[in-house]
Every structure is written in structure tokens, then in C-alpha cells.
Amino acid sequence: MKIAVLLPYKENYSKKSAGAVSIFVNDTNNLSKFKKDISVFGFTEDKSNFNNYKNIILKKKLFQSTSTQYLKNFIKLIENETIDILEIHNRPHYITFLNKVFSKKILFFHNDPLKMQGSTTKSEREFLLKNTDKIIFNSNWSKSRFLVDLDKFKNDNKLEVVNQSTSNPKINFKKKKKIISFIGKLNSSKGYDIFGKAIIKILDKYDDWSSIVIGDEPRQKFFFYHKNLHQFGFKENSFILKKLETVSIAVIPSKWDEPFGRSSMEAASRGCALIKSNTGGLNETTDHSITLDEITSEKIFENIEYLIRNKNIRLDLQRKAHKNFKLTNKNSSNKLDKIRENLFNLNFNVKLNRSKNLKILHITNFNERFDGRLHYNTGKRINNGLIRHGHNLLNISDRDIISSSKTISDPLGIKKLNQKIVTSFHNFNPDIILMGHADNIELETLDYIKNENKSLKLAQWFLDPVSKHGPDYKNNKKRFLKFINHTAANFITTDPYSLDFSVKNTFYIPNPSDKAFEVLNNFMNNCENDVFFAMSHGVHRGVLKKGKFDDREIFIKKLIKKNKDKDISYDFYGFDNIQPLWGDNFLKTIAKSKMGLNLSRGKPIKYYSSDRIAQLMGNGLLTFIDEKTCYSDFFNKNEIVTYKNIDDLIEKIYKYKRDDKLRKKIAKNGKQKYIKYFNSDNVSKFIINKTLDLNNKENFIWN
Predict the structure, then answer these.
(1) Is the whole-model pTM more than 0.90?
(2) Are 187 and 217 in contact (CB under 8 A)?
(3) Which of 82, 202, 228, 575 sits at a 20 to 30 Å CA gap from 456?
């Protein structure tokens, strides 16, 4: 595994000038099991660099931003290398530039995401969620800031917290001296102005105590002098850590929201008694400290004096801070390595040969028990695409097995199904198990299979609506989420970022057309009917269910009523005792219509459509669809017709009835584009690419 770490421009990855980001990267990488495979990239003029560092040469150009040049030169520097994972630190806007260059990307936040270029807005953060594999925060506070207005992603496994860290050496508390420290930028945000006032009073009152100040600030000047106040300026981290071993009291009085607080964390690791404010992520640095209830010089003085006068309390805080310190470099390094391993954990054979013909166990309802009536289904379409790509398929039709396997000891047939899956797994040894609406697979079955073959990849596709305002929402959501912790990838026919709940590794796929199924060219014909529409809520029975109501009936009946005077010929099925259509009879019937209405159940949601759209557009009918589905993202006005409401739909139906030439042109363009891009070959390849996380160059227009 080759890992490239890209630092922010101007981040000095050097022993003398390292900031918090560089210190964290160096400390954790030195303990990583992948240490030899990690290269750190940045720009600095300092020559005292840490190990495994490669400098990006920059020559500033007048009309090009330095950041753009930095990123372009970085790409040139690694163009002959194979990089498996790119780790970007503290520069979310780099993702936009590098998004298509690297397949696996980890973004680290060391500051408040809402104050950083590239992550201030909700849409920018949604873009980062969609285009990174992991986002790592230095504190839970930073993570909470990223999730402002994004509550549905709060449990997304893509988001991780890996705190900044340091070493935790043994401390001889007898060697602690009467020293009070302040470490950090010497500005008012860090509270240096109020610390300075307090420390002068302390040193005047307790002349056996001294204070050290480490840090600088060229933009803001505060000057404090005392014979027992020792100011060191900026120092390298090793110097700071050594000094802290002798410090008794460390003061961190930040007024601003510290994203984490490295000074506080390092003081705790060296067994200092801490006095700190309660801002940002400071409380995550230690559980053992005195917290300022007011950030004033008076409160700082009061608490320092309290610890000076109460030696036992001071010593107790010191020992507890050190003993219970968990934010070690080793812990953080191990977390990072685990994240890297999980991202890199591909099937080894596939990694060696990405053109390999895979063995795929496809489990879905192939409807064999209906003798061809339901032959034209999505499972068959995906199968056709996978076979054309040369993959070896073994099919299990789950509901057919359940239907024929019910016994007294197994009344639902579920036990038999899961036994068959395990046996087929052993006999076939698949690379991928692909599931489609396979609700009756037990999680224990998947646990067993994954334990037997840890390189096996699981994926699922799901066609039913999972919109909050759609039909069967709670049940469909439950069905979809059942396998989410077992699958490497999930595929739905709705835009994942439009859902009201968090999903991980979930991608949109269109309802696939298939060149063997969509064989009509209605745009070439003068069809006898104007508009075709069909519902099919009696799928398994083959006839309408009594008492079953579909909310689309209201819309359709309004449409017919409002259109009475326009001489529109409708061919509608699936309601008012007009039975639905199946198999070849469906094709023969749809061949008679010029136009098709694509109307799905529930309120429209981005990109969702029933699978009917593949048959309408794929067979060359001029297709109408609600504009709120956002299909105009894929098809322009010369390929599909969108409508705002029922009145708008009526006007457009009548318009294209009268203009047959334009109707045929749009229908032809629509079919050609749907068949070219939204076909089973492309959809099946996309499913494989995402499941195995392959960095293929195919441009799928829906991705």
C-alpha cells in the first residue's frame, strides 16, 4: 500500500518549525506499520525535515494562485507513482481539484470546518461527504461543527475522530519544580493578555515560584516582565515536551473555540496540573483539570493560587492527568492504520488483475415460478450486463426457493434459503455476493460467510422508494438498512443525499435498460394511442388486488377529466378494474402508444423513478416526468419532457400530440441517450467498480 500525505501549503514539516499538523503526522507515521510506504508532501524552505518527506518546488506565477500551482506540481511529482490512498490535511478545498485524480481520499480536519475554505457551506460539506472515503476530525467538537445542518449524517461511518496525540513517558513527580507554564500564540485569543496580568501578580506574591512562556506572535504584542518570568519564544516540540516534565501548573486560558488544544493535551501527558477554559474541544484533552468558569485574569490568579496553596490537590491532579492519559501516538497511529487497512482491503486477486472475470453469486427474485410473466425485471437486466462483461454468475432466486420449500419445521422456507446460500457459497466460492431485495437472508448467514472468506465483497441494489414522503417508507427503510453494515457498496434508484437518514457507501443507479429487452422504436411509428400509463400493484397475483388503492389513481383520473375536450386517446392500465399488463403482452400494448407517462408512487424525490422509465424511454416513447425528480440533470428538453403540475402536463401532452415531428425527434433522442448511458452494461460495471473500489476511468453520467 502506497500512501501520500499532502500537507497544507506553508506547513513546515521540519524539526525546527513544525506546527500541530506536522507534529501529528510525523509522530503517528513513525509508529505506523506502513511507515516505509508513506511519503509526506509539502512546501518548505527549511532543511531540517522529518523523514520520508518530498518537497514540492514552487515558482510563483503572476496570474496563477499559489495553491493551484502547489496542487499541479504535486500531481506532476507523483505522476509516475501508484498512490493507493491520498491523505489531505486541513485543506478541504484541495478535494475539488484532486477529486478525479485519486480513487481513495482521506481528509483530516485540524480546525473548525465552518471557518475553512471548501467546507463553510452545507453544500460544500455534502460534496466532501460524497467525494471522500473518510473524513477525520481532531475532536468531537470539530466533528459536531462539520455536522451543522447535516444531522442525518451524524452516524455516518465515513466520519471518524482521531485526536491529536503525543508520547506519555514516565514522570518523576519528585522532580517537578515550582513552575507555571503558558505555551501557544501570545495573543488575546489564546488568553495571553489575561494570563500575563495574572502571572505577574502571582510571581510578586509567591517569589519561590517562576513561570515559563513558550511561543510568539508577530501580529499582536503583549509585553510582561518579571525577574521570575522566562520567555523562550518559538521552540521546537521536543524542547516544549522536555520543559513540561518539570512544570507543575499549566495554564490554557483560550478565549476562542480551540478545535482541540494541543498545549493542554501535552501538559496532561507530562503530568501537569491543568487550569483551562471550557471552549471548543479543550475538554477532550483531559478529564482531570480545573476549568475556568470565567475567562478573566482574576479567575486565573485565583485558581493558580489555589493550586500553589494546596499541594496535595495539585499533586493529585498531576498524577491523574498522567495516569489516565489515553491520547498517545500509538493509539492514534493504530486507529489510522486500521482506517487505511479497511480502505485498502480489496480482494487480493482483483487487486492483482483488475480485468479478471469475477465469480458473482446473485441473489434476488428472478420470478421463475411465474413462467415468464415477470421475465422483464431488473435482476435479469443486471445479469445480462454482468454476463456481457464476462463474469461468471450463479443465481439464487430467493423467493422462488421460499415458495417451494415451506415445511412444518420450516413454515416460511427461510431456513432452506439460508442453507442453500451457505452451500452455494462453499461450492462456488464467489468473489462478490450481490443481493437485490433479498430480505430473507439472515445476518447470521452473512456473518458466517464473511468469516469464512474475509476478502469476499457484499453489495446490494434496492429499487423501492425510500423517501419519507413515499409509500411504505418505514418498511422500505428498514429493509434497505438491514444489510448496510455488511455491504461494501449499496445501490439505490434515489439520490442518496436527498434521503432523510444517513447512509454509507451508497450510490445512485438509474433503472437499467437492456438492448435485448427494449427492442421497440415507437418514435418511428404513427401509433394509434397518444399516452400510455400502467400501474402494477398486483405483481405476484397477476391481477389487481381487491381494496388496494394507489394514490396515482387520483392524479390519473384528474388528468383524464381535465383533458376531455382535447381529444387525447389514453391507454391506461392497473386501476378501475383494468388489469395490469405482463410479459410479451406488455410489449405488444406499449407498441401502440406515442407517448408515455412516468408517474411513480409518493411525492417526487431527486432521481427516483419506478423501473417503468427504462421501458418507456428505452422503447422510444416520448416520456413525461415530474420536474422535481431532477431528471433534467441527465436529459435535456430535446430528450425528455418535464412538467411542473397537472395543468402543465396537459398542455404538453396536447402540444406534442399536435406536433408529431417534434414528438418523434425528442422520443428518438431520449431513447438513444437512455440506451447509450442508462443501460445494463454500464450499471453492472458501475456496481462492480464501486463494490471493489476500483479506480476505473469510465465516466458514468449519473455518478
Answers:
(1) no
(2) yes
(3) 82
